[in-house]
Sequence to fold (88 residues):
Amino acid sequence: MARHFVDFQTPIELCEKIIELHDGQDFRRVLEPTCGAGSFLAAAGTKWPRTQRIGIEIQESYLPEARHTGAQIIHASLFDMRLVKDLS
Fold:
């Protein structure tokens, strides 16, 4: 049975605006489930360069671009993961 995905890549400009809403905050870890090309991971890396950034993506075609953000990218289905255990 073939899987069909709805695909929407959040524009980097929107990600940057959302990240700006968290100005003055510092995060130890940022998780982007279903990260696609990693726009939020890229914006978070610019704002918080020392923060651990993790993306989860099932579509293999997005992995190279997402990894280019410098974040840890996990090739998996979010729904098959046990996040507390798998990300510890």
